[in-house]
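User: Please predict the structure of the protein below. I'd like the answer in structure-token form so I can feed it into my own downstream comparison script.

Assistant: Understood. Taking the following sequence of 249 residues as input:
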Amino acid sequence: MKKLLTLLVATTALTACHNDANNKQAVMTEDQVKLIIDNYIEENPGKILQEVNNYMAKMQAEQQKKAMEDKFTNPIKFELDELTPVKGDANAVITIVEFSDFECPFCQRVTPTMDALLERYKGKIKVGFKHLPLDFHKNAESSSLASIAANEQGKFWEFHDEIFANQTNLSEETYLKIAKDLGLDIEKFKADMASEKAANKLAFDMKQAQELGISGTPYFLINGVAVSGALPESEFVKVIEQVLDNMKK
């Protein structure tokens, strides 16, 4: 930071030529340059801070732009397995893979955004749900297993919506009530929830997340382009539009 500050000050302070009495360009000593810089810093602290902030903001913007360009140039290769529940047109040209945690408030917040995107790009996108229950959410794993059991009876997305609607009251009693309200076979539901198949599916999703280096939720892959967090719909639209444009090239 000190080196950066010195460079910025020198660039700002030494903006004019210094001439001697014979109108020849004078050569300043290192001490003279240091004195000018020290005086400038002392007299213009606010301007120096603004210069530093502007420089850092510019560098950050350039880094973010480069990172986003790299995401589109080198998307992550990822294919959904047959046990992953999918919403939307099966033949959609864009696949959004969502890694989610039923107890994560940000995952709950972004759910309406996914529904809005499905409506906005009807026929063009589909959303696949991958389980990533985080360690510090005590009911996340059990709710994932319950939703996997619901998927065995073709009611994953309905169960998904009810789980998020009851996010602050997750328990086995809640899962059974939702299953009953959805008309599921309760005995089969309980057996599927405790089955090795459900446990393996959950472990498979979590392993995929680990291999991709995903440690937080929600996390998305839009045709392999990584997007992290419960961003507003407009941000997802930007990525989707860019993906669609790239497909035309």
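That's the full token string. Strands lie at 86-88, 94-100, 125-131, 219-222, 225-228.
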